[in-house]
Amino acid sequence: MTIKLFILVLYFGVLFFIGWWSSKKIKDIKDYYVGGKKLGYWVVAFSTRATGESAWLLLGLTGLGAIVGISAFWVVLGEVIGVSLAWIFMAKKFKRITDKFNSITVPDYLVSRFKSKTNNLRLLSSIFLSFFIIIYVSAQIDATGSAFEAFLNWNYFFGAIVGYGIVLLYIIFGGFVAVAWSDLIQGSLMFLALLILPIIGYISYSNNIPLFESIKKIDPGLLSIWGPGGFNSINIATIIGYLCIGLAFLGSPQIFVRFMSIKSEKEIDKGKWVAILFTLITDSAAVMIGILARSFFTDLGSDVESILGNNGQNSLILMVEYLLPLTFVGIYMAVVLAAIMSTVDSLLVLASSTIVRDIYQKIINPKTHVKDLIGISRLTTFIMASIALTVAIIVAISTPERTIFWFVLVGFHGIAASFCPTIILSLFWKGFTEKGAISSMIVGFLAVLFFKFIMPKVEYIGIYFDKIAELAPALLLGLLTGYIVSKIYPNKELEDEFKKISK
Questions:
Q1: Using CA atoms, how far apart are residues 367 and 362, in angstroms rounded to an integer?
Q2: Which residue has the higher pLDDT, 238 or 310?
Q3: What is residue 28's DSSP assignment?
Q4: Which runs of consecutive H residues, i.e. helices, occur in 102-219?
Q5: Are 146 and 404 in contact (CB under 8 A)?
Q6: How many Cβ atoms from other residues are within 10 Å of residue 153's Cβ?
Q7: Rg, the chain, Cα only
Q8: Residues 6+ apart with CB under 8 A from 32
Q9: What is the pLDDT of residues 263-293, one digit of tens each?
Q10: How far apart, in whole angstroms, are the C-alpha atoms of residue 256 and residue 196?
Q11: Beta bridge partners of 39
């Protein structure tokens, strides 16, 4: 226990140092929210992936590998496709246009892109962002409490509060610069930890029969690419849902704000290969950790969730404790917390920016001095984090059967469905209008709630929508709505302007 605590204290000390060091670089609101647009490709690539993966990668995807076996690799494929599309086809164009507009938030970009004469678009996008960010951050705080409970036998609620306090401190002082550099460190830890553990697990495997033969004896369905039960309509719907997870990377603000922060388009060309390889290697390793955990800790007829936790989300923790010395258990605990915090810090800075920049400065009090905005930003970060902590505690009390996989995806998909259709159409279609953007965001937002909580209950077809999940249909409806409304209410002047800015 003492060794674990020492390693954690050391790790948190590094984070606090980053926060202090970053605070020296903050001169104005642009520095606080996008690092002055001077970050290099390594920092941005690791930051986008650490933010995009979070606790879901280490606890959720490893658990999925344990429960469904090799069919979890469809998630890997979906994520690699999504990351590749975002970096190869969208990042440079988004960077170029946001630089022309001098945007420092996603709502900034949207308002400039559509030459908005009202505050409707800015206000709407800010509300949607804040709503889903609170859910998403709550999920990460929930994971923090679970991690402290699993590794140190701390009370869940005490662990959640400790994690909340640590992240809050270094963000408040260092802003986006602290977030980006801490994400580089945390992303590196995640990469190494996930790469090394399945190798150690495979070397340590001592069964008399080959690994995959052992898995086959436990459940032959674990070796089916279609999933347990083989090729059937339910599994096809499930695979579609796995593949569509990567759609969330095609415009989510917490990812795309990092494309604003990179110092040049040339850096994007370098960073895309780092981001793609990071995704392929870490996601594949996470699935293998889950499969190994199934072989190490379960047998034919075992109650899997009673051994590996809800949806197998304790698989990585059990593997670490079984295979590694105590010192390394402490390191892996730091890695799990790194994954969680790399997402929490990014989302809190994003939430703060949308409240302070897009609502307070642009709508409520445009005459506010720039220097005052930094202090207001820090206060806003504290308030948003506190609300998220409260939500996490309420959910933990009222829904003890929740899983990290489910909780994270609700927030992640909510942000994606509200913004991805609008970002995609705004970058690639000259005929897209402000009314189309507003309609797209509203429909995407409502569709996530509809396909998450209502459609799965519909007789006969509900089970398929439950497996496909809410993101794909919500994103499709958002795209369709944006197109139709823009066709009904065209804007020729905006089309001509788009031709100029997109060159």
A1: 9
A2: 238
A3: S
A4: 106-113, 120-152, 156-204, 211-218
A5: yes
A6: 9
A7: 22
A8: 26, 175, 176, 349, 373, 374, 377
A9: 999 999 999 999 999 999 999 999 999 999 9
A10: 30
A11: 262
